[in-house]
Design goal:
The chain has 18 helices and six strands. It has 433 residues and is mostly helical. A hairpin with a 2-residue loop joins β1 and β2. It binds s-citryldethia Coenzyme A.
Amino acid sequence: MESKVTSNGSASISVGGKEVTLPVLKGSVGPDVVDIRKLYGETDVFTFDPGFTSTASCESQITYIDGDKGILLYRGYPIEQLAEHSSFLEVCYLLLNGELPTAAELEQFTHTITHHTMVHEQFDRFFQGFRRDAHPMAIMVSAVGALSAFYHDSTNVHDLQQREISAHRMIAKVPTIAARAFKYAIGQPFVYPKNDLGYAENFLQMCFSVPAEDYKVNPILAKAMDRIFILHADHEQNASTSTVRLAGSSGANPFACIAAGVACLWGPSHGGANEEALNMLRSIGHVDNIPEFVQGVKDRKYKLMGFGHRVYKNYDPRAKVMQQTAHEVLDELGKHDDPLLKVALELERIALSDDYFISRKLYPNVDFYSGITLNAMGFPSEMFTVLFALARTVGWIAQWKEMIEDPAQKIGRPRQIYTGSPSRDFVPVDKRG
Ligand code: SDX
């Protein structure tokens, strides 16, 4: 990646009796940054920013978020336009390569991904080692990492061709692995991918078809699944993407780095929130119970899952598209009276009119409506984060690739402020109090 930052003046800091001038760098849109790379060398002090609330960890040209305006761009294209007009594989090409593909490029890319969807026959035995009640995310973390045991010919991160084939293999095989995690949990036989189906359609048939009868994917549900994948594809330097970048900065192979991202995404504050949000709606059960639940949030007994965001201090643009998709899917399935949707809509209405949430700029995020849709489509809540990981795999890979190809990239090695014991001598056990 060629750096495109420009100079925008400088900032001075006076600390420890020393004065240092630091360059201020400007990107194409968004906040400027103070380049502090020489700060420690010239002042012997670190910056301190747990949670990285004011820290840019890298330069990137992939995804831009304006949290105040509720804007999300993939390579400059608004998420709303991509969700309406594009397809997940076209968005994969865009995130990986920086430009929308021509028709011929998209056809070639689709052919390549389609012909990598099968996993090694030995791989299927891998699942047998799990208990049937294993959480599908535990299987995903293990299975994605295990890909590096099968594809030694694409683990050299310094080889462009190997980076490309490992990217294609992961985008193609993660749906097959995710579907196997689902089938294993419900005790049904694994279903092979079919090369005559589209990406989302193929995933749904691997999840819901059974050998006992023919299965035709509902095109409305396939389109909704494809759109849900688009919404979850990338999101700047979120926790799991930062995990992938940090793992990749050591030179670890791409499969191991993506497995690290899967592990981080599992957390309830991050990708695990979609599962928690549906469990929360189920526990509320009826709109009459919302006021008591909201009081519990205000009393800090629990958080409103699917609400709030580190960056969005406005409505998450993905949540709007997710809500529309929920209506489409529920209508198509004749479930427009789903009580969970009623609870979600009323909970949103109450929260958005209550000063506790308004003052904290808490709005629905991508996880608030996704669970209702996925539940209606037949996925158990344990599979929701697996679907998030499936979609985010392309974003993790695009960010990992950008990091590897960034000439300024170094191994990530943050420092700390130490408040533990200063040096002291060892005390033999018979002399301890
Ligand atoms: C994702 O980073 C990404 O981009 C992530 C993601 C992606 O695509 O990769 O967008 C996906 O992870 C979406 C977020 C999913 N998580 C949830 O829905 C879980 C519930 N949300 C919260 O845990 C929380 O909002 C976070 C973790 C998402 C953000 O937390 P921050 O930025 O650290 O904010 P904070 O904890 O400092 O909260 C500020 C205030 C606090 O109140 P005070 O202590 O100041 O009184 O808001 C409160 C918090 O208590 N607050 C909430 C709340 N979220 C924040 N109160 C109730 N319910 C919530 N959900």
